[in-house]
Amino acid sequence: MNGSDIRTRWLDFAARLRNVGLSIFSRSKVTVTDQGSADVRVLGLMLLARTLSNLRAALHLVDGSFIVEAKVIARCCFENSYWVGALVKEGDKFRSAMLHHEMKHKRMRAKTLFATAEGLKGDMRDKLRGWMKEHEQYEESPTLDPKGICERAENESYMFYQYLSWDAHPSIETLNRYYVAPDSEEVPGLDVNPAVRSTEVVEMLNLMCLAVLGVFFGVGDLLGHDNAQTGAMAAEYRELTALSATMT
Fold first, then answer.
1. Which CA distances in Å does 99 have to 3, 76, 117, 146, 183?
2. Quick check: is 14 in a domain?
3. Does the first or last residue of the chain, that is N or C, have fewer Cβ atoms within 10 Å of its Cβ?
4. Per the domain annotation, does 130 fall within a domain?
């Protein structure tokens, strides 16, 4: 099977995968607790919503031949799967770690405002200083990072996250896709809309769908679902992955 045909199969699979994710919401019977949006099950559903949004965005980007941008979005799906996995493994302990991380970064942003915003004066400055004083217990809070959370979730896909991250930053290699070899007069060119190979699209979809499936399984575990639909999609994913190895 040629690359174009396999690309079409992956695009169809990803679209159907999104529908499976939407069905998880319809089967969810989560009631509001005193933790509100901080309830681990609600956090899981919000991560699912973020993942489905990421998936939809990536598919639109692929349709527009924006493969670099699609890879950056696919990377977000891996982050989502790590966060969900840590919620499954640690529950409220990880939820608390998320809160401490967020408050630590809010204090860091407030410090930046004090250091750079010369116009921050009067009542606004006093209120911000008061807020920092009220939340000074978060000054020494540890921060979270994808690699650390991947390990906490006992997930072995960090190498794929690293691979997708390569295109998220400018380097000689990543910029080279826009370079056109010199013409007969030794004048190089630049292509602002370089052609996208089917193999690169298939590779990105393969990795992204792996992460999305991880989110589905994790959220299903948080909600007590049997994950039968996700399991069926995972079996199809393995078949499609094997077929992709035969691309010509």
1. 45, 20, 26, 16, 56
2. yes
3. C
4. no
